[in-house]
Structure formats: C-alpha cells, structure tokens
C-alpha cells in the first residue's frame, strides 16, 4: 500500500505547490512577455513533473530546487522593476520591422523573421494592405504592434467633434441559470431580473447568460437557442 501512497502524496503536493505559485506569479508566466518568464515556465514544468513522478529523486531536494528557481525569478522581477537597463537586458526589446512605411529587411534577417511570417501576423491583426502601415514592431512576446498611417486610422468621436460618453463595465446578472448576487443593486435587483425574464416567458433556470451594459441594454442567452441546424465547427 505504501508503494502507492507516496507517489499519490508527491503528485498532490506538487499540484498544490504549482497552484500556489501560479496564483502568486501566474500573470508573468502565462503571458510569456519576457525571455526569463518563458524560461521559468519551462523550468517549473520540468521540476514539477520530476517532483511528482520521479521517485528516484528525493522530494525534499526537488522542493528546494523549485523554491530556488522561484526566488531567482522574484529577484529578476525586482531588479527589472528598479533598473531600466537591467530590464532591457533581461526582457529584451522590440524589433522594428516597418518604419515610415518601409520594410527593414536587415532587422528581419537579424531575427530570422520572414515575409511570410510578417504577412501572417498582419492578417491576424486584420491588416491586408502594407500601404496602410507607418510602423510595425515585433514585441518580445512574439506579437506585432502596429501604427497605421493617419489617413487609414479609424475615425474617432473626437474627429467628428461628438461629445464623449462615459461607458462603464457590463454587469453580469445571470450565469449558468443562477443569479450573481454580488452584481445586483437597487436598480438591477433580483425582482427586476426575474421580471425581465418573465417578460420573455423565461424562468431563471432557462437562462444560460444575462448581462446588462452601461446603457441599460439587457442581453439574454437561453440554454435552448431554437436553431434548426446550429453550426458546429471545431
């Protein structure tokens, strides 16, 4: 029995440790916006896997190794926050791919970035015409940031001299057929929500999702969509 209990303990302990660390610094790891956060995510995965499944390595030694790598990463974060030149050295810097509408071939060759890569990334951003672009940066995270030429920028309310309207965050009222009590207030009370459902001949259990925006427009999605042949594409 002990043969099975210890691996189970190692696996559970490793999982709990991983969850705790992810809650602490998960935003830095998940985004992969710096070189060392990418390296850390790989290292953490390797250490946790060995900690959970490799019985040949003592658990305590793996735990010490894990704590050490987290401490090193924390030191990197502190140094990066306090010193800009250290941050640039650790995190890297963006590469200019297009400047003043001109493709910088030298920069692309230096980072092994092909025209096909550039076209694909731009299409993902909804840009199909290079004539629209003033600047394009390849960020450390691998994502493109673009600045369009002024004549191709979308028109804003300021351009049309229209008054700006403050728009708040939509308020979720129902999720999975249950009221979200913390989002209710005097205006959008439980009684109001139930009344809106009743107007649509719905009960609370029939509603998959309901949200109201800052303008008072209510969106309700039912479990039963009543579509004859719903699209199912994976």
From TrEMBL:
Ranges of residues in domain YetF C-terminal: 82-212
Pfam family, one: DUF421
Topology in membrane: Multi-pass membrane protein
InterPro entries registered for this protein in UniProt: DUF421, UPF0702_alpha/beta_dom_sf
Organism superkingdom: Bacteria
Family: Belongs to the UPF0702 family.
Protein name, per record: DUF421 domain-containing protein
Organism encoding this protein: Halobacillus locisalis
């Amino acid at each position: 029995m002990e043969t099975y209990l210890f691996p189970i303990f190692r696996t559970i302990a490793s999982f709990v440790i991983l969850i705790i660390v992810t809650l602490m610094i998960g935003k830095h790891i998940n985004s992969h916006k710096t070189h060392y956060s990418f390296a850390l995510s790989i290292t953490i995965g390797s250490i946790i896997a060995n900690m959970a499944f490799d019985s040949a390595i003592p658990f305590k030694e793996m735990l010490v190794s894990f704590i050490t790598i987290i401490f090193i990463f924390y030191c990197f974060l502190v140094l990066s926050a306090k010193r800009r030149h250290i941050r640039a050295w650790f995190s890297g810097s963006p590469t200019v791919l297009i400047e003043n509408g001109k493709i910088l071939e030298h920069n692309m060759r230096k980072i092994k970035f092909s025209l096909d890569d550039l076209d694909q990334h731009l299409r993902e951003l909804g840009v199909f015409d290079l004539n629209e672009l003033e600047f394009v940066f390849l960020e450390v995270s691998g994502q493109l940031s673009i600045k369009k030429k002024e004549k191709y920028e979308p028109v804003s309310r300021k351009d049309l001299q229209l008054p700006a309207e403050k728009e708040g965050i939509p308020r979720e009222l129902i999720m999975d057929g249950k009221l979200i009590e913390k989002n209710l207030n005097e205006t959008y009370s439980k009684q109001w929500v139930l009344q809106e459902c009743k107007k649509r001949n719905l009960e609370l259990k029939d509603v998959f999702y309901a949200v109201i925006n800052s303008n008072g427009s209510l969106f309700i999605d039912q479990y039963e969509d009543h579509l004859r042949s719903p699209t199912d594409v994976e």
